[in-house]
Amino acid sequence: MTPYIGSEGGGSISTDKWYALSLKLHRDYRGKIEIIPKVPVRSLEDFAIWYTPGVAEPSRAISKNPELSFTLTSRWNMLAVVTDGSRVLGLGNIGPEASYPVMEGKALLFKYLGGVDAIPMPIRARDREEFISIVKSIEPAFGGINLEDIESPKCFYILERLRKELSIPVWHDDQQGTATAILAGLINALKLVGKKISDVTIAFIGAGASNIAAANIVIKYGAKPGNIVLVDSKGILHSERDDIDKLMFENPWKYELAIKTNADHRKGGIREAMKGADVVIAASRPGPGVIKKEWVEEMGKDPIVFALANPVPEIWPWEAREAGAKIVATGRSDFPNQINNSLVFPSMFRGVLSVRAKAITDEMIITFAETLAGYAEKKGIREDYIIPAMEEWDAYIETALAVGLKAMELGINRITLSKEELLNDIRESILSSRAKYEALMKAGYIRSWW
Amino acid sequence: MATERGEYTIRHARKEDIDQISDLILRLKKLNEEFDPLYTVRHEAPEIVRKYVSESFDKEDVIMLVADSLGKIVGVIRSEIRSRIFYDPLISGVITDLYVLPSYRRKGVGEALVTSLIKILRSRGIGLVSAEFPPMNKIAVEFYTNMGFKPLLYVFFKEI
To answer: Does residue A90 sit within a domain?
Structure first.
């Protein structure tokens, strides 16, 4: 799952071992996914049902009412994992072909964790309009679109347009998935330190896809925009920064935040942004040392530090704690409190696909985050447990249920299910996909070669 | 007129505003720099802008208005009266510079500046107003179009 093994130096030796093994196994298995039918074929005669001539009838029905494609075909559970390969992992603009292993890996996670049939779809699209037009034209084949690894600020524009123009859910995991996990962790962290979202000051270090989305969703959740400060590579964002007009044209999303945040007109860098802050959320560049211990010391009482850069957080968790941080979260699975979008995307789509939702709204994102936080709270939150770990299967089912119910409450569902029906559908989708997988492994069709 | 960040009034520019106005106009010139290398702002621009603003006070054919929010200049409009010699109407007020600070945008400051300028031009018997800006500035194109302006002149450039 994680592309590194935790160790103090960032684990470069162990990481190299993963690289070599991964390359070998990708070659041996010739990719990671395949398509398997789910209807019985008792004899070749059954093809008359699944294919011609019988299949003409569902086609006729859909031609009269295209919405029936969500009930008569596999469309409802099909998700396209679309990228242009312009910002893949930390590798940069490596192109659509090179992004395929990542999209295919995502598809594996979608199926295994969420029972979602995801298709890797790297596309050769030079500009954003071309990208949008391609995704719009494949809409009839899918119940949802997961955008992935698209460079900023292009990703904001593409998501905004597609969310408006498609009538299936469109999700950009690098923005919304991470933002949802951040919000879930933040909800519990604030409970532990006894602070309210409407009172806290938050410094966002880094103003890329995930932090821009996180700042917006945290504001929607109730943080005061004026209490938020964002820092990018040029320093603290404020409405009179020298490059502000340039931002208006080149990155209107960052521009919007520059204008509505930072009511005190703070200027400077990371240190100035963190001074007196209750929360710091860093998603900038790999550390350590991007955030210094002294800067954590200068934060407010019981500070919350999210240092999310991978593979090495902006500050090591123990350093942050030594400097007085009450709660520390990172992006790593080998430290407590992993802010991990894998806790989000499988069940987010499980929930919305099960009710054939037309969109994923910000309200649904907040519902999801509250449910994920609530799950951990029920188990008992502590400084080192603010968010569930990936092994906590029930969390996937609970969040998928909550988001499906929310979609129905908002009236953007295509089919209506009772709570029990929805829960059964979700549980069945997730558990049966794992059961089938395990059966194939047990029967020796999927074997472990290492 | 009320804004979220306090009241603002439109008034004629005064000499004590020179520093603040110069800052706004320099920002405007730097914004143009984004559009084309031929808009590269000269190194001496800060002094030139200051001179440009100061001298505007001495010229009868220049009108300069500001949006003043509790003593802070948050927007400026500068226009020159020009004669078109071949065409009727003969005289036009040309908006050479219009800039509003980002946090005061979308509150009608720009519109108020243009409307106030038009009122003054009319009172001087002038029936035509125009604005000069780079064609790539889509926000300006939209702003003036919404205010009823239309393109009437192309100026093409070529390096030789």
So the answer is: yes
Q: Tell me, what's the ipTM?
A: 0.86
Query: Do the chains contact at B34 and A248, CB–CB below 8 Å?
Result: no
Same domain, A209 and A326: yes
Contacts of B101 in chain A (CB under 8 A): 239-240
- The domains located in chain B, with CATH, are 2-146 (3.40.630.30)
Tell me which of A330, A359, A387 is where a domain ends. A330
Give the type of residue at A149.
D
Task: Provide the domain limits for residue A5.
Answer: 1-30
> Does residue A72 sit in the same domain as residue A143?
yes
pTM: 0.92
Q: How far is CA A312 from CA A9, A328, A330, A395, B111, in A?
A: 8, 14, 9, 27, 50
**Domain-embedded: residue A335:** no
Of B31, B103, B138, the CB nearest to A245: B31
Nearest chain B residue to A261 by CA distance is B103
For residue A340, what are its two tokens? 């991990």
Pairing of strands A202-205, A117-122: unpaired
| A292-309: burial string, b at 16+ Cβ within 10 Å, e else | bbebbebbbebbbbbbbb
A264-291: per-residue pLDDT in tens?
A: 999 999 999 999 999 999 999 999 999 9
